[in-house]
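Fold it.
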Amino acid sequence: MLDWIIIGGGIQGITVASYLVGSKKVTIDNLMIIDPHDEPLTNWKVCTRKINMPFLRSPFIHHIDVDPFSLQKFVRKKRHEETAFYGRYKRPNLEIFNEHCEEVIQTNRLKECWSKGYVTDISKEGIHWIVQVNHSQQVKSRNVILALGLSEQPKWPGWAKTLKEHNEAQVFHIFDETLESLHTIKPPVTVVGGGITAVHTALHLAQIFPGEVTLLKRHPFRLFDFDSNPGWLGPKYMRAFHHTTDFKERRQMIVQARNRGSITRELYVKVKTAVREKRLIIQNGQVQKADYHLGKIDLYLSEALPTLSTTTLLLTTGFDQSLPGKQLLQPLIHAQQLKCSECGYPIVNHQLQWGPNLYVAGALAELEIGPTARNVAGARKAAEAIVRGI
């Protein structure tokens, strides 16, 4: 019998685990983290490395450790503070951030409670939770935390799904686990998207295949420092959010608050430089349909725009916004009569408790945490809420 099971070993799950152990709410012997990967943060590291992201978008106080200044102390100890942070918000270098994560994981001995596997069912037995792993192993725990991400549901536009049906067509989503490296794809390449992932991807490809990369976007570049206003991290905006009892209105507030499809100013400067140096081509327009013939993909854009031909199509269109882990959670919702909003997401209390001893973090917690729920800052807020309530 365990005290806590955390389902999901990404940024969200590991941050919650770090807080539980660091705050001495649980011992390693009574904690299990279940995740399909070999090690913590695998998906995070693969995705950020693939697009060659040099710095995080969030400032230095957002990381997986309890102490908000832990990362800064780590950098000072390593004596390379001058290269560790970027800009006035001191955004951390990705390599430094990951090194700090590894130290926190080691300090809290989180790999000792790591269990590789897929959770296939969650049920209740009296006051305890039964978590089934890989359809075979059953684990019993007093508490369960759902830290499921959106990474397993990348968003594919309808025209791209149709194109993908041609087995020979080189069509990928940037978050497809089968696409291990951008060095292996065939140029010319068209990147579809206009947000921060799209721009990181396009800039990386422009280094690999200079002059053979096109960034196709639907809207002008949207420049914002963060993916939502920093006021959402505190009472400035969250007070009104929590006073809103209509969860449909809360969803609308979240959608309006997010700077979706936006990039930072320094990335915009890098894009302009790459275009000026003829390493990158920018094309505005929206795909109406796509065809594949003799190794070439033809993208038909809106009227008055020329057809765009490419060899490889790379989607950076984000994730499907439906409930994460829907196949796993729907039977649980029905069996335990768990409350959900009209959008399908959990309705939880201030401690992120969805049902008796059942907690959520990450995207599943956004109707309580707000628009920052999915990022590193949101992981910290979720961990703080859970730990504060137990």
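The chain has a mean pLDDT of 95.
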